[in-house]
Amino acid sequence: MLELVGSPGYETISKPSEYVMRWVEAKIAEKGAMNFGELGVGIGATTLAVAEKMSGKGEMHLFDFERRVDELGDDLKKRGFDNITTYANTERHWDSYHWNLSKLIREGKGEFFDVIYIDGAHTYLHDALAFFMCDRLLKVGGIIVFDDWYWAFTNSKWMRDTRDQFMTEEQAEALQIKMFLEELVNDHVGYEQVEKLTVYRKIAGTSRSSENVIGASQIGSRLKNLFSR
Ligand SMILES: C[S@@+](CC[C@H](N)C(=O)[O-])C[C@H]1O[C@@H](n2cnc3c(N)ncnc32)[C@H](O)[C@@H]1O
Prior knowledge:
The chain is of the alpha/beta class. It has helices at 18-31, 45-54, 66-78, 97-106, 124-137, 169-173, 176-185, 216-228, and strands spanning 36-39, 60-65, 84-89, 113-118, 138-146, 191-195, 199-202. It has a single domain, classed as Vaccinia Virus protein VP39 (Rossmann fold). The radius of gyration is 18 Å and the shape is globular. S-adenosylmethionine binds next to α2 and β2.
């Protein structure tokens, strides 16, 4: 898989995300080691750069279709990275990384990740759910990076021949990541937007089992601030 990085036809997925690299570097500088999750690995451009930066410290958890993530996991292991766990899902219409995330939540993984990169389906259906699931698995202070909020199916070759089986024309034209970030994440009390429509920091736990669960008093004071603006 990694041999495809930089090769013709793969230009758009051959460059590591600068946002991910910035926040991975910041976390490593802050804590020495960190745990990283990536939903949608492509051909591994960002994954490889992050693996090199982490240099074997902390854990990497990678989610994608079986044909991609298993091969990438093998490639990384051959390069000496043994801190990788892969989670493969099928290409059945309603399958996605959400199913493996659900297993991690059920197994009690808890608030484990420092940085999670959500760069998979780019649909409201998959990725808004993935955000709420990742929230359960992210440490307070942890970072979620979203890819390309300005991306729409209609301008891409991805699923061009099959997309009408999966979505309406309106959905193909919509900026689906931007939509759910504006509707569900930007004013989420547990998150602050750090880089516009791309990087969000978890500032408080929002489940009862979370550390630093957001209290009624904090919500009250935030509402007061909001209304006094
Ligand atoms: C843009 S690429 C990811 C690029 C990668 N994050 C990087 O920075 O190099 C999107 C990835 O999402 C995966 N993906 C899309 N829909 C998916 C689904 N339903 N389940 C699992 N993976 C999916 C694709 O297979 C593809 O590898």
